[in-house]
């Protein structure tokens, strides 16, 4: 899991839309209704594909230099970045039930104080793991 930067080729379409292709990543392409949407969709497509590569233990291809890409007509190339660790958190935010044991007196005191055990555990784990 890591941060990546890859060049993408944007091809303008009708009504301000764009088709986006990542020449270094086979099968990685998307589109957007406008430039802003295209950039967001490109980040999502790149994150999804590289997360899949990581899960499948596939070799992550090297990124080309943007100047080595061939663009035609009104196409342009730009770098798109992604962080597969952040992407995994966003896509895998389902609740998981955990069973734990604490002393009865601590349970009674915390319950009386209206403590949310799940939130406290999440906060403590994030702090312990240095996760934002």
Descriptive overview:
By secondary structure, the chain is α+β, with helices and mostly antiparallel strands. The protein has four helices and four strands; from the N terminus they run βββαβααα. A four-stranded antiparallel sheet has the order 3-2-1-4. β2 (18-21) and β3 form a beta hairpin. The longest helix has 21 residues, at 35-55. The chain is elongated and about 75 Å long. The mean pLDDT is 92.
Q: Give the distance, in angstroms, between the N- and C-terminal Cα atoms.
A: 16 Å
Largest sheet: 4 strands, antiparallel
Beta-strand percent range: 15-25%
Tally of helical runs: 4
Structural class: alpha+beta
Give the fraction of residues assigned to helices: 25-40%
> In which order are the strands of the major sheet placed?
3-2-1-4
- Anisotropy-based shape: elongated
Q: What is the total tally of β strands?
A: 4
Rg estimate, integer Å = 22 Å
Which stretches of 5+ consecutive residues score pLDDT under 50?
none
């Amino acid at each position: 899991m890591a941060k990546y930067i890859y060049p993408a080729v944007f091809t303008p379409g009708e009504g301000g839309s764009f088709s986006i292709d990542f020449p270094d990543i086979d099968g990685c392409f998307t589109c957007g209704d406008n430039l802003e949407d295209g950039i967001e969709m490109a980040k999502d497509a790149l994150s999804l594909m590289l997360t899949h590569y990581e899960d499948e233990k596939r070799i992550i291809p090297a990124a080309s230099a943007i100047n080595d890409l061939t663009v035609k007509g009104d196409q342009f190339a730009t770098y798109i970045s992604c962080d597969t660790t952040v992407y995994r958190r966003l896509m895998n935010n389902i609740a998981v039930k955990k069973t734990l044991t604490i002393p009865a007196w601590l349970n009674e005191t915390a319950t009386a104080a209206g403590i949310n055990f799940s939130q406290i555990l999440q906060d403590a784990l994030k702090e312990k793991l240095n996760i934002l």
